[in-house]
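Input record (one chain):
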Amino acid sequence: MSAFWYCVKHKRVESDEDMCPPIDRLGPFASREEAEHALGKAEERNEDWDNDPNWND
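The corresponding structure, as predicted from the sequence alone:
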C-alpha cells in the first residue's frame, strides 16, 4: 500500500519513493487527494481545538 505525505516546505504531495525529512511533512495519508488537502484539514483541527471548551478551561 502506498502512502502519501504533504511537504510544507515545498508545498507538494510526496510518495514513499521521494520524501523530505519528517520535520517538513504532514501525514501519512491513504491517498494523494487526502494529502493535497492536508493544510485545510490541519486548519480545521486547529480551529476545533482552539474552540474546545475542555481544552480552554
